[in-house]
Fold this protein.
Amino acid sequence: MSGGAATAAAACQVLVDFGTPLPPAGREYLSAALDRSYHLVDLQWEGPAVRLSLAEPADPDQVRQQANRLAQLARTLTPDVRHCQLGSGTFRDDPTPTLTSRGDVTMIAPGMAALAGSFLDLTNMVDRYWRRAAEALDAREEEYPALWPVDLYHRIDYFKEFPQQVLMTAPVHENFHQREAFADQYGKHQEYDTVDSSRHLAPSRAGLQSAVCDCCYFMRRDTENQADRWFTTAGRVFRNEVSPTGNLDRLLSFRVRDIMAVGSESFVRGAQRQMLELAGEFLQRLDLTCRIETAGDPFFANDSVLKNLFQTASGLKYELKVRLPHSDQDLAIGSVNLHQDFFGRSLDIRLPDGSPAWSACVGVGFERAAYAICCQHGPNPAHWPSLNQEVFAS
């Protein structure tokens, strides 16, 4: 469920009957899409029907209409599996209690994890692995701010397509009266657990980044003569989602490394193939039960849902899905994305011949990858696979 949903009270109950059962991939997609569109308290499948408990007032008929629209798309999803393996791990319990008890993971607030010790070392090992992969590709290392200017959101239409992920920032109003009122209301001896943004905060000019690769394309906006080039960056991303179980599978803030390719169509298509090969090698090194398969982003339930059919059918997004034995669910620890010329057109990045540039990226979340390792191999570092060996040819 979406952030905070587990503790919210249900304001609306809706039963949606689809007539015939959806395939497993369709159920997974539909559940995710509904969770990103509504504030869900609970979602339960009952044969061919789904029962929704919403923590918001809603028109049941409108909810059913949206759900049926999504179900039509969900029935078309036939994943293209590019990699599949059975790992040797035998651990079947939730590793979180052990990681927490030894101080490796501390949840300082819902969706906010502080890391230390061997688990932090494991996340850093994941980053080093992918940084070496980037170096072998002669990727240019870049570092971007953790904020996106509003112009970036605007030019790629992010607010329309992913409103459920947005976390904006804003300063206190820039005048003495407003700052004094803010300081008085939120002093140490006042009682509060939220801040009234509508009263005290000025309009937002930036938001916390939801992905690390977009700044790579944005900084090349309105340019000509873009050459074929690899780039890489690591950073912290922010998404408005929290694990319903309080685990590391969904966090408000987590770290990611991306390797990006920008340039001609032929170069970028070849780069996507290399990215899929690198992702498969990475999963083999981790010895995990997992697969790499096509996926559709669970867009907000507006007109954007139609993009999922094209995205999946065209092989534009592949996810690295790892099995979590204790929950009998899959966790996407990374993805390979082919944007075609979307960023080239949206940001006016031009090739030497004047056509829009193409782009692709592969990204892996450090916390998610480390958590998946612990779920299958256990929380004991002695049982973790090693990623330290140099494996990339120059």
Q: What stands out?
A: Residues 265-286 form the longest helix (22 residues). The chain has a mean pLDDT of 90. The domain at 5-74 is CATH 3.30.70 (Alpha-Beta Plaits). The chain has three domains: 5-74, 81-164+205-383, 171-200.
